[in-house]
Every structure is written in C-alpha cells, then in structure tokens.
Amino acid sequence: MHFADIGAQEVKNIPTPVHAYMVALRREDGTFSIPQLKKPPAKAASAAPAWLWPVVVGVVSVVAIVVAGLLYFAKLEIAPATKEVASASRAEAPKPSLSSAPGASPTSSQAAQTPQSASSTGSGEKFSAETVPFIGDRARATLANEYAPGADHKAFAVTPSGVTGFVVGAPDEDVAKVAALETCQKRADKVQSPHRCELYAVGNHVVYPHGHPPMPPLPWLRHDPATERRFAVKEIPITSDQAKARIEALYPPARKVKSLTIGPNGRFFFNVGQENAEESVRRSLENCGATLGVACMTIAVDDMFVVPVPTLMKATGFFHPASNESIAADARDDVARQLAGAPSGWNAVAVGTMGRPGLALKAGSEENAISGALSDCAKRDRDCHVIAIGPFAAAPNN
Q1: Is residue 140 assigned to a domain?
Q2: I need a surface site. Which of 30, 191, 208, 383 has the fewest CB within 10 A?
Q3: According to the 3-state scheme, what is the secondary structure of 84-145?
Q4: Phi then psi for 357, rounded to 5 degrees?
Q5: Residues 6 or more apart from 218 whose CB is under 8 A from it?
C-alpha cells in the first residue's frame, strides 16, 4: 500500500482545510498509480455569505411589489386619458355643416356626450309646427319652413316661456339633440328664463315628456262690454299683495300686445309684445298650464279686464260647479250646464242650508247678479248666500 499526498482539502462541516493523503494502487510493473482528483467546481471568489441570500430575496420581493403597484396606477391614469383623447378626436373630426335656428353653435362638448334630458320618450305623435305650444305664430312658421322639411339628423328644444332652439343636418342624432338643447339654453339664459330647455322633437316625432299643457275650454278670449273695465292692479283677484306689487312694476309698462294670466293658486304669468291678443293669450295660458299643471285663466289683455272681476265680494279661487260641495250633488251638473250657456254678462250662484242653488245669468252688473241669485235661491232653500260671481268662487269682503 502506498499513500499519496494530495495536500490541504476542504472537508464538509469542518471550517478549515485538512491535509490529506490518498491510497496509491500498485501496477503490474511494480509502479504505483495515483488516482487523479476531480477538482471541485471553483467557487466564485465573491460568493456572498449564506446570511445574505434571505436579504436579497426580500429586496427582490419588495421591488416586484413596487413595480406591480406602479403599473396598476399607471393603468388607472392612462385609461381616462385615452377616453378623453378619443372624445376629442371625435369632436375634431370633420362634420357636415349644421343648419340651425339663428345663433346655433354646436361645440365639441356637444358632440362628445348626450344629456340625460335628451330622452326619446314622449307622446310619439308626428311633429306638426301648427300644434307646438308656447311659441308664437312666426316661430311656428319658421319650424314649418325650415325644421319640418330639414334633413336628418335634427332636433328641436323649447321652454314653457317660448324660448326655442333647433338644428338640422347633424352628423348623428346625439349631436342634434345636444346642439338643439345648447342653442335653446343659451337663449334662455340670455333672457333670464326661469325654465330649462327640454327636447320637444327629435326627427319628425314629438318626444316632449309632458304632453300638451292643460288649457281652459275655448274660446280663450271674449270681449264683453258688460263686464270689461279698466285694469287696476289692486282689483286683481286671488293674488297676494306681494304678487300685486310685482305686477305693478312689470305689467303696466310692458309693451303691447300683452296679456295677464293667473292660476287657481294666485300665481301670475304674462306675455308681452305680440302681434295680436289671441296669440298672447294662448301663450300665457300654455305657460301657466305647463308650470302649474292645471288650466289657468287670462284676466286682462293690454289695459282691460276681460273677465268679470268681482269688487262687491272677494274672489277666493276658481269656481268649479261640477265638484263644488256646497251645491247639492244632484244639482251640480245642471248648474255647470247653465253657466256654460251664459258666456256674457254677470253670472252669480247662491245656495242655502240644503245646497239648493239659485242662479242669476247674464245680469248687467255685479250687484244685479248678486241680488238675482239670492232671490232665486230663496225660492228653493233658506239662509241663502252667494258662492260664485262670474268664473270665481266668492265670499263676503272682510
């Protein structure tokens, strides 16, 4: 046996090298064979200590989390920006020219979105310029000549006070809706209208969601010398003192032709500067009806009362005989029929304790109407008192 010196060797679990020897095998010729040692893989001179690896792994994990977070938030920031650029591109793309009512100027924001009020709900009736409420005869003629035959896409917006805006020949329906609303609203803001614009028609179909405003029975205007008299603000029925002060400041100096309309709650509406009384009355009634949701009454045109306005008694509201509980139920329809058949002069209604009515029709004065109604009631009832004069419910003056 022969030992060969193989020098200092690193041994597992021993921190320092150990000097070692290897057995040499004897050959047949008597020499010794010393096996060649397989050199272990060389370790990197700069190999990191064992304790450093957990630190490296931790740092890499933290870096990975931070990078992932940055990418996530970058995505959130990029998404809206992309949407904004897409909208801007659509707005800036060339479009066919829009033909609209004077003052129409659709903007890029109009092309980019459609307002909630641009709903396609409504009556579904076919558009007819002659039946559009709130607007004057000239505006109706413009709609008939320009909007009705205009090319799609088109839309028309309006307010109850008669401010309008329309557009024809738009690139698509959404652009038409927005352009019509913006044109209308700019005009409404300019005249300080209390109403917001709403779509009335899209294409050739009515989409106005409120339908036609409630209106009183025709005729809306009567000229009766027996009841007409000079307009006086202090004699306006139903309205409050504060409302009368506003009317005093606004209505008398307003430009003719003009009309003053009131609702059953005393709110007032007036329309000025029209070509004729019929148009002014219609528009003020439509405005009032649309705003209050009930039929209203025009009480004055220019500087004259055009309905019987009581002065000997106090008007407390509109008189509706068909639903008036002071009148016996079996007599209400007859009272309503008789009053409808007496459109001129002074009419009055009185009732007694049993609700039996007495009527005076077409009297020449308020005083004669009152006395006639009381006399007629006394024939059927007792303790009679007047409950209506003309179109108004009435009570004694305080």
Answers
A1: yes
A2: 30
A3: HHHHHHHHHCCCCCCEECCCCCCCHHHHHCCCCCCCCCCCCCECCHHHCCCCCHHHHHHHHH
A4: -85, 150
A5: none
d(CA 353, CA 272): 46
Least confident of 68-72, 79-83, 258-262, 385-389: 79-83
User: How does pLDDT run across 303-357, given as a tens digit for each residue?
Assistant: 999 999 999 999 999 999 999 999 999 999 999 999 999 999 999 999 999 999 9
Q: CB neighbours (10 Å) of residue 142?
A: 18
Q: 351 φ, ψ to 5°?
A: -140, 160
Tokens of 129: 């310029």
| Distance, C-alpha 115 to centroid of its chain | 9
Q: Which residues contact 324 (CB under 8 A, 6 or more apart)?
A: 332, 335, 387, 388, 393
Question: Domain residues for 276?
Answer: 229-305
Is 70 inside any structural domain?
Answer: no
Q: How confident is the model at residue 124 (pLDDT cuts 50, 70, 90)?
A: confident
Q: What is the pLDDT of residues 44-58, one digit of tens each?
A: 444 445 555 555 455
> What pLDDT is attached to residue 398?
75
- The residue among 294, 245, 286 whose CA lies nearest residue 269 is 286
Q: Is residue 176 part of a domain?
A: yes
Domains identified in the chain, total number: 3
21 close to 9: Cβ distance less than 8 angstroms: no
**Nearest to residue 394, comparing CAs of 237, 228, 207, 288?**
237
Is the pLDDT score of 234 beyond 70?
A: yes
Question: Of the residues 272, 305, 338, which one is the last residue of a structural domain?
Answer: 305
Residues 333 and 364 in one domain: yes
